[in-house]
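Bumping my old thread because nobody answered last time. Still need a sequence for this structure:
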């Protein structure tokens, strides 16, 4: 029984770690999309390769001709700077809140759909689609 409990705890810990790393990735991606232009060129390059091209620190160092430690320092400073921008400006949190509100509006509009107003509802949803990051034809 102890082994099974240990395996379950270990699996849960692994799952939580993966969810946390995915959440961290999404959070950093949002910050980079909003505040990336405020970073130094080297910070932008390191963070872009790390986040979007999934390069390791060593691979980024090779690509940019800098040490692994310099890559780590650039990424760490970039994260710190973006977190400071976010704490002062709150643009990423505002974006998430607005997106959640738009999703709720979209869900409400779907519930209001009847045969009589189907085309009007579809038009409203088509106008909401780009704001929600979907294609117009996506339902």
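Sorry it took so long. Here it is:
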């Amino acid at each position: 029984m102890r082994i099974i409990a240990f395996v379950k705890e270990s699996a849960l810990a692994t799952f939580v770690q993966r969810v946390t790393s995915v959440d961290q990735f999404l959070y950093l991606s949002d910050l980079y999309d909003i505040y990336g232009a405020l970073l130094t060129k080297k910070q932008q390059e390191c963070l872009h390769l790390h986040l979007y091209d999934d390069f390791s620190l060593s691979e980024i160092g090779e690509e940019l001709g800098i040490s692994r430690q310099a890559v780590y320092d650039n990424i760490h400073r970039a994260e710190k700077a973006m977190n400071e921008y976010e704490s002062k400006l709150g643009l990423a949190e505002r974006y998430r809140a607005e997106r959640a509100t738009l999703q709720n509006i979209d869900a409400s509009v779907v519930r209001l759909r009847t045969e009589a107003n189907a085309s009007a509802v579809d038009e409203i949803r088509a106008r909401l689609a780009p704001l929600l990051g979907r294609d117009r034809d996506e339902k």
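The mean pLDDT is 87. Let me know if any region looks off to you.
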